[in-house]
Design a protein that fits this description.
This protein is α+β, with helices and mostly antiparallel strands. Helices cover 32% and strands 15% of the residues. The protein has helices at residues 67-73, 89-94, 112-121, 135-147, 155-160, 172-202, and strands spanning 20-27, 46-52, 58-60, 80-84, 124-126, 208-216. The chain binds zinc ion.
């Protein structure tokens, strides 16, 4: 990752307007190896994720974002919004190997502060942002720990979903080695990941952000425009 140009980008943060800075690079295809692997030197083979150092939000470079749609996909039309927490302990451990990255509901990688800003920018009011215990976040912590050991990111999830097979894997050796690591390391990862996520929740760094939608903010009169 050291060859990423860390200088500020041309694009302002979609939430607070401060500059975005390159943060991490991911393979262009989700199944490609990333953790512990050197990415190719061809920029078309990777996706650069930029982050705002002011509000903490992150977003893929050159990807447009519709704030109303981002609000809707995290549950903003209902009573509760929930989304993976980019400032969680598991995201800090995992970085590009964080297991929640491929299952984001929208395009924004949110933190407590940027979730509150997203609500504000869409004219909505939310309650306090929490990081409660959840089955999803426990699973992401488990998979994130295993991602540090396997060639293929999210091996268990991808194999179970039928998206990763020996014939479309990075290498047959890597595929079968990952299977052995997942079987042997899976139980141990449970023993470590469960207390880690409990600690993360206790220090408000749990893997899932959640808040109650309290309705429209004072002064906001119309629903935000949405392409949906
Ligand atoms: Zn920002």
């Amino acid at each position: 990752m050291s060859r990423l140009d860390r200088s500020r980008t041309e694009r302002p943060c979609p939430l607070c307007g401060e500059p975005l800075y390159p943060w991490i690079a991911l393979p262009a295809r989700a199944n490609d190896a990333s953790v512990g692997m050197v990415l190719s030197d061809e920029p078309e083979n990777e996706r650069v994720i930029e982050r705002c150092e002011n509000c903490g939000v992150a977003i893929e470079a050159k990807v447009e974002v519709d704030l109303a749609e981002e609000w809707r996909v995290i549950g903003g039309d209902g009573e509760r919004v929930a989304t993976p927490n980019r400032s969680s302990l598991q995201a800090i451990f995992g970085v590009e190997g964080w297991a929640a990255l491929p299952v984001l509901p929208g395009r924004l990688l949110l933190t407590s502060e940027s979730l509150a800003l997203l609500a504000e920018r869409t004219g909505m009011k939310i309650g306090p942002v929490r990081t409660p215990l959840s089955v999803e976040a426990q699973g992401w912590m488990w998979q994130t720990l295993l991602n540090g050991l396997t060639f293929h990111p999210n091996y268990f999830r991808e194999v179970r979903a039928g998206r990763l097979r020996a014939d479309n894997s990075r290498s047959r050796f890597g595929y079968y080695a990952d299977g052995i690591v997942t079987v042997l390391g899976g139980a141990l990862a449970v023993l470590v990941s469960v207390p880690l996520e409990l600690i993360a929740v206790a220090i408000k760094r749990g893997g899932m952000l959640e808040s109650q939608v309290e309705g429209r903010a004072a002064g906001a009169t119309s629903k935000p425009a949405s392409r949906a």
